[in-house]
Specification:
Strand order of the largest sheet: 2-8-7-6-5-3-4
Radius of gyration: 22 Å
Structural class: alpha/beta
Oligomer: single chain
Distance between the termini: 40 Å
Number of strands: 12
Helix content: 40-55%
Number of helices: 14
Strand content: 5-15%
Order of helices and strands: HEHHEHEHEHEHEHEEHHHHEHEEEH
């Protein structure tokens, strides 16, 4: 076997030197403050059992889809699951993708055309950036949640005969913050721009039924497209693009991550259906999550940690602690005390904005929250006197 390429080895060495080298973690029995399983649905036995029973009742004893949906993989659960997802999330149609990453690269690589322009929030998810890079459109970022900056850029572009797409998230994954979706929607309407919102971290968490922030605000028709995922609050796997019938037909024909991949197996679709049924039958889990988030915010104030945290009403709360070495050391201290809490390092976030990210769940107890934030106050104070 030939030696590993020198350039690749050097890049790994640089990561190691800068404390930015990523490694796959092992499974632990630590108290969960790091996963996206906000409602505990990934562990809910009734979802598992109901998905299995659905397959048994429908005689769908099939392990795989057998091919892409355009060939042999469009089994019967696909159509009914897409109708369920569209109706629940107040959309005209839904098109299922194998993951949020697949949905974003599929959508953004094929929808914006040569000559079009994409304006995206600077904190947008990496999968959206990757999709935009694959398109033929020009793209420019605007400052995070800064509508004045966005409007300035829109004013420079709306005089030209081109399609303009504006992209943001209803909850940012690295901050937990949300934009002013009402003002953002109004601005896009005034400037004749197509609004696209990624709701990965909002669906299941926000809204009277867990339908996400856009629909909860009555803005579902203001968006050209909404992108949702099932691997977070819904506790399963896959994603969907919500939009018009024309958009769905276009994606079926031109989204390469849809056309050229094997479809999801029947079990994945049955689990999505069971997760939505759980949302319908047990709204109290969502209420419990919101109450737990509110308690977490109270404890931040109690421990006088407000200066560290970004404003968030979501299940994601981040304490900004600059320095990869420092934030990794604090995360390790949490883990040594029984808590699964992860550091977010640069280059995932900008240098100097490294952070400890707390993901709040319906199953986190008040005792755990009080303890974990009291530990944070101790660890941050201790770290000031150590070389980073």
């Amino acid at each position: 076997m030939r030696a590993f390429p020198r350039k690749l080895k050097k890049k790994l060495a640089v990561r190691e030197e800068n404390s930015t080298l990523r490694k796959l973690p092992s499974q632990t029995n630590l108290i969960d403050f790091s996963s996206n399983d906000y409602l505990g649905f990934a562990q809910t036995e009734s979802i598992f059992e109901n998905a299995h029973q659905l397959l048994v009742d429908r005689a769908l004893r099939q392990n795989g889809a057998t091919g892409s949906r355009l060939l042999s993989g469009n089994h019967e659960l696909y159509g009914e699951t897409e109708i369920l997802v569209a109706n629940y999330n107040k959309a005209a149609t839904a098109l299922l993708f194998n993951s949020g990453y697949n949905a974003n690269i599929g959508f953004f690589s094929c929808v914006p055309q040569r000559g079009d322009v994409v304006l995206y929030d600077e904190h947008i998810h990496a999968s959206i950036r990757d999709g935009i890079k694959m398109s033929l459109a020009k793209s420019y970022k605007f400052r995070n949640n800064d509508l004045d900056d966005l409007e300035t850029k829109l004013d420079r572009l709306t005089q030209l005969d081109r399609e303009i797409y504006v992209v943001s998230e209803s909850v940012f994954s690295m901050d937990g913050e949300s934009p002013d979706l009402i003002a953002l929607s109004q601005l896009c309407d005034e400037k004749n721009a197509h609004l696209i919102i990624d709701e990965a971290h909002a669906v299941g968490v926000f809204g009277a039924t867990g339908c996400g922030l856009m629909a909860d605000l009555g803005l579902e028709d203001a968006a050209f497209a909404r992108i949702i995922t099932f691997g977070k609050a819904m506790g399963c796997h896959g994603a969907a693009v919500l939009g018009s019938e024309n958009l769905k037909q276009y994606l079926v024909n031109f989204a390469r991550s849809f056309v050229y991949t094997t479809g999801l197996p029947p079990h994945s679709l049955a689990t999505i259906q069971a997760a939505y049924q759980e949302q319908i039958e047990h709204p109290e889990v969502r209420v419990l999550l919101q109450n737990t988030i509110a308690f977490f915010k109270q404890e931040i104030k109690k421990n006088k940690l407000e200066h560290l945290f970004k404003t968030s009403n979501s299940a994601i709360h981040c304490a900004i602690i600059p320095g990869n070495a420092r934030v990794k050391r604090i995360a390790l201290q949490f883990q040594n005390n029984g808590y699964d809490i992860k550091p977010i390092l640069s280059p995932t976030v900008p240098k100097g904005e490294e952070r400890i990210r707390f993901c709040i769940h319906s199953y986190n107890s008040r005792e755990e929250i009080s303890h974990v934030l009291s530990l944070l106050a101790i660890f941050v104070n201790e770290s000031k006197f150590k070389v980073t």
